[in-house]
Amino acid sequence: MLVRKVPGFVPASPWGLRLPQKFVFLLFLSGLVTLCFGALFLLPNSSRLKRLFLAPRTQQPGLEAVAQVASHPRARGQESPPNPAPAAPAPGEDDPGSQASSRRRKGWLRRTHPTGPREEATAARGSGATALRPQEGSVPSSFDFKAFRSRLRHPVLGTRADRSKEPQSLVHTQREKIKEMMRFAWQSYKRYAMGKNELRPLTRDGYEGNMFGGLSGATVIDSLDTLYLMELKEEFQEAKAWVEESFHLNVVFRIKAIKLGEKLLPAFDTPTGIPKGVVNFKSGSNRSWGWAMAGSSSILAEFGSLHLEFLHLTQLSGNQVFAEKVRNIRKVLREIDKPFGLYPNFLSPVSGNWMQHHVSVGGLGDSFYEYLIKSWLMSAKTDMEAKEMYYEALEAIETHLVNVSPGGLTYIAEWRGGILDHKMGHLACFSGGMIALGAEDAKEEKRAHYRELAAQITKTCHESYARSDTKLGPEAFWFNSGREAVATQTSESYYILRPEVVESYMYLWRQTHSPIYREWGWEVVMALEKYCRTEAGFSGIQDVYSKVPNHDNKQQTFFLAETLKYLYLLFSEDDMLSLEDWVFNTEAHPLPVNHSDSSGWGGG
């Protein structure tokens, strides 16, 4: 679950947005996760690792690393991809003003931010993807693909042993429908916006925007693992070929990511080690976003959502500096005084003090909590610090934020210095899945309680869908004045193809196998088809309470990365991208669990 979401249009209120400047570098790292995942299992065993992760054993002076990739022998009968474009200095690299945000959300960046900061994302295209220079291919590798494969408990796409009996089944038909939606979304993007960040289906053109740090092709990167998962082989090859030819991280992805990570380290040059939101690649200077407490603060959902990717970067590079940076963030957060055990959204990277006491499990805070439990799981349940911090935070959230409405709906309110706002954002609806995911490892006496809490929160989020005319949920919904689980103003009534609700359906399905979650998921599929599908792609709508849709003309990249992926997994067997082997980052790109033994499915 790394901005998470870039809104189709920005509402006036800041609270309901899942921060889009989730450090633009995690946009790149999310792309890396996707590319590496697809390559690990698409290419033959003999070449997967070498083509994407391993540096050449020798590097002839003056040759770019791309030559090593291009010359690697391919398996018999496998079609050669288009020749990669020669590496070149990334546009904007020599521009002193070229900047990149030092962060996602919950794919590119997971969250969205308050009105107005779009102009803050100022990285020139590719500024985070500095071209490889001679000798850069000599970065040592610490990633052992054979050992990685041997530790998987399940085949990546599942055993699918009963597929021959499945063609006439309802679940097969439903899964194939979701697959068709993904194919349609991809083909529309390819036809009208290939190489742009997102498709505008009404005007049938592409959109770049500022929330991608100047990078192009966000939809391609975000779609790769979904295309692979759905076995849309032709479409996956199209996306892969575009990356090889046109994406600025196209040469030895592992080395690119390491170099990018090194360029982003100046963001951490603060008295506390808490990174600021923007780093200038040319000068190495950093700054906070101007809209974040007048430029004085870093954002919890930004600096708190680096752990998975930075630990993975250390694993790929062998360089401990990346892990050290995020461990220091943990240390600061562990030691700081927290009001009633809660984590406010704004922290000064200079003083290490909270800048105000606004607490949200939705926008500005969300993925911090998600990454605590997922760090525990990705570590194969050895990261005790993450586990302790997660359950302590969850206890504080339940004590001070969780409420039950007069109508019996459980929701997570927002906290402002002791005063509750009785509202819940769509972005906070991921929490049902998060709590379900963490229930198994809670204290024994709390496990059943957390499973029930997860189910009740997810039910409430479903109600926000069921109580709209379109059966799609609003950006935010309230519990006051006799109205429950509905938006109270038009600026909160929009739906921009968000995934958080179906994300929770997927996790609850895998935990309980209750058919209600597939029923609810299918309701979403039908609503998407009826109200969001246009002749040239899918679009968000500006009012979920109107049966005459007013489209926002944006097929969000996270729709392909997350919404359709989670729906497809909801109607798939549990061993497809098994949760024993994989943890989804905040943009639904899978990262491997660090199993320490070799007794898994791939161990033979």
TrEMBL record:
Name of this protein: Mannosidase alpha class 1C member 1
Species in which this protein is naturally found: Ovis aries (Sheep)
